[in-house]
Amino acid sequence: MPFANTSTGANLYYEELNATANSIPIVALHGLLGTGRKDLGGVIDWLATEGYRVIAPSLRGYGQSTPKPRDFPYKFYNRDADDILAFLAALNIEKCHLLGYSDGGEIALICSGTRSQNFISVATIGAVGYMGPDTRTAIMGYRFGSQWITQEELKLHSIPNANKFAAQWVRSMVMMVDSGGDVAVSIAQNITAPLLMMLGKKDKLNPGQYAEAFLERVNNGRLVMFNAGHALHEHQEAAFRKTYLRHIQAAEKTNQ
């Protein structure tokens, strides 16, 4: 699979399915400790069978993407969003559907609020654009990486120390919470593409009221709640697929 050298200094590995398909491409963004294949493999394979050209990059520092090691400066979501916008430019993609899971969903919200003209539709799984004060305790529960990062993940991402990795992520997340929690709320009004936010009712880091507050600032957005946890695309696969396919089909019809 190929790499894209971006103007932001990231060299992003990506998987592409149906490269020659005559369709608006779907760009799928993974979450924390993931890759396009690891987090969204079932989704991108399914979308390919539906006839779509699908592109799933690995964010900087994850999988085969560089620079390494993956780090988490304050507002790392914004850096990742800059990388993805530069990635689209490197691949000469002027219009696409954007789908993001977890951290990838937060990045998708920033991308769509920053350069709305690039996107036919936007959809997020387990992301709300805001880190509220009641998420602080849950975030702190991740500070010891050795308790939740697997050996396979350490190897996949070339992470030298699980605890240092987790501590850096937690520190940046807590800084976001303590500074007001804004990930993409302040630019939500710039989103012009149809926005679908999908959340699991059991997702402790992404309560539905945060998504509702975000959508109050968006002209064309809606929230769908699933009886699932964070990875609702896996827990409620059939319902997710039906909901997402309708979303992108409706956006394409409107865009004709």
Explain what you see.
The protein is of the alpha/beta class. It has one domain (3-255): Alpha/Beta hydrolase fold, catalytic domain (Rossmann fold), CATH 3.40.50. The protein is built from nine helices and eight strands. The chain is globular.
Overall radius of gyration: 17 Å
Strand order of the largest sheet: 1-2-4-3-5-6-7-8
Supply the CATH architecture: 3-Layer(aba) Sandwich
CATH superfamily: Alpha/Beta hydrolase fold, catalytic domain
Please tell me the overall pLDDT. 96
Shape: globular
Concise summary:
This protein is of the alpha/beta class and 256 residues long.
What's the structural blueprint in terms of helices and strands?
Elements: E1 3-5, E2 11-17, E3 26-29, H1 36-49, E4 54-57, H2 76-90, E5 96-101, H3 103-114, E6 119-125, H4 136-140, H5 151-156, H6 162-178, E7 195-200, H7 208-215, E8 221-226, H8 232-235, H9 237-255
Helix pairs in contact: 2-3
Name a few traits of the molecule:
Rossmann fold; eight-stranded mixed sheet; alpha/beta; 9 helices; 39% helix; 256 residues
